[in-house]
Amino acid sequence: KAGVTQTPRYLIKTRGQQVTLSCSPISGHRSVSWYQQTPGQGLQFLFEYFSETQRNKGNFPGRFSGRQFSNSRSEMNVSTLELGDSALYLCASSQGNNEQFFGPGTRLTVL
Amino acid sequence: GEDVEQSLFLSVREGDSSVINCTYTDSSSTYLYWYKQEPGAGLQLLTYIFSNMDMKQDQRLTVLLNKKDKHLSLRIADTQTGDSAIYFCAEIPGGYQKVTFGTGTKLQVIP
After folding, report:
1. Is residue A85 over pLDDT 60?
2. Residue A40, by phi and psi: left (phi above 0), alpha (psi -120 to 50) or beta?
3. CB-based contact A94 B97, cutoff 8 Å
4. Taking CA atoms, what residue in B is nearest to A6?
5. Residues facing B36 on adjacent strands
6. What three-state secondary structure class fits B83?
7. Tell me: the pLDDT tens digits for B3-25?
8. How many Cα neighbours within 13 Å face the side chain of A44?
């Protein structure tokens, strides 16, 4: 089975722009979670989707949003980018049994 | 609350055993995990333990859980240079998919 894939792997944006990141889960996995990793804050949970519905949400502002499609692929969107949004964004997929498999991440740099 | 704490750094000689410690505070956690992150990469699930277990062994890895003290440890036997990475413990409280990660312990293996 192919693992979790994330695109793009690297991204450079400027303040005020918006960005969309994509995650394709392992085939058969219906749950997709997103995390932000920064040196200062560590790994923080953004949100989790299951069968196209957001089930859990972390403590991030409304600029961070996501969605999941019927094929379980998920996208994450960040609007009005700030310098502090520079981070590694990780996606994880699961069958719903609490065992999560992570993708390689998208490295976002905001200038 | 959901705080997971780890020491930041551990240095060991090749061939020795490494012990990475973690404390958590959410007593409702049913699953506790250890992940490995190598530079520039995503997270790799190493092993996990159910909260009703005390110990789990998987090749060179031994996980010990002291539920009374909310203490989790990962022992790596015969540590190799390829084990150099950041190790995260993580918990999932109450069956939700929202994973709370520790701060991460950077393991340095000296040849």
Report:
1. yes
2. alpha
3. yes
4. B42
5. B44, B87
6. helix
7. 789 999 999 999 999 999 999 87
8. 15
